[in-house]
Amino acid sequence: MKILVTGTSGFLAARVRDYLLEDGGLEVLSPSHAELDVTSSDSCKVYFETHHPDAVIHLAAISDIGECARNEELSRDVNTGGPIRLASCAKEYGMTGRFLFASSDQVYTGTHELRLNRETDSLAPENLYAREKLAAEEGVAAILPSACALRLDWMFDLKPGKSNFLKNIIRSIRGQNPVRCAVNELRAETYAREVAVNMKALLFSDAPGGAYNFGGPAYGNSYETALSAYELVGEALGLPVAGLVLPAEYDTPCSLAMDQEKINSVGIRFRDTVASAAFCLEREAEYLIEIR
Ligand SMILES: NC(=O)c1ccc[n+]([C@@H]2O[C@H](COP(=O)([O-])OP(=O)(O)OC[C@H]3O[C@@H](n4cnc5c(N)ncnc54)[C@H](OP(=O)(O)O)[C@@H]3O)[C@@H](O)[C@H]2O)c1
Questions:
Q1: Which atom of ligand 1 is nearest to the CA of 43?
Q2: Which of the following CATH numbers is that of domain 2-155+190-218+257-271: 3.30.930.10, 3.40.50.280, 3.40.630.30, 3.40.50.720?
Q3: Among 13, 110, 217, 282, who pairs with 59 as Cys (CB 3.0-4.6 Å)?
Q4: Could you identify the atom of ligand 1 that is nearest to the CA of residue 79?
């Protein structure tokens, strides 16, 4: 089976590609941006005609919210147009396997109550990136109803690369720099490996198409999550954490936290943020020393 994974010079797709290759038995196509430019229909078609993927995990995107706001036209072309072009190719070339692509928990930015967001909720996202992701979900569903849009939360691991939830905690503890975390915010963060493992499970499942909340359950509000995560990381580093997490309150409550019922119903489970961080620290302890 040949699986096309896009965006492998980026954070998540590199982890997903490596995980798919771990057990052998799968062929992973991982073209560079230059080999497959998702803003070009011709590039997508030529790639499909030449390589005939059996399934797609589309993760290439402009993933930085600020960059999207600064480059509106390009980001729409990549983040909304890209998934739609690839889904059209998958349909045109009669691809038999699944089409999975990255959406985001940012689609829930319009939620100003402390509750869990469900896939069926009506949405009013508050930033351009999230609106592009939502438009991609709708556009792809119209072309390929079996496709799954994965609403991912903020992911982390300890490998070299961009900063993330866990690396920020490590740096804050090492520098003994306090942080303020909101008591009226609900959200979760998930270890990227868990996401990769669960993507493979979904790829080979007969789960119905549509949008899936694809990240861990919230551990508590952001202040409670940080308190527990700091304890955990402090222990791993052998450093004190007392007084480093301070409570804050936003003017308006907000929740990106995702309900788990739909994803659990297809046999897929995620750890909560703190358990996910513990799992990551256990597997990737070798990288701790490098994070300063
Ligand atoms: N990271 C997170 O915590 C997070 C959270 C929620 C959702 N997501 C979503 O998950 C996916 C993966 O995120 P990530 O953090 O791994 O992204 P990333 O590190 O920014 O990587 C993005 C990748 O997309 C490629 N790309 C950009 N424009 C392209 C184009 N026109 N054609 C082909 N490739 C192109 C980039 O290649 P070049 O660098 O060579 O241009 C890079 O390989 C994205 O859809 C993102 O929106 C991520």
A1: 32
A2: 3.40.50.720
A3: 13
A4: 45
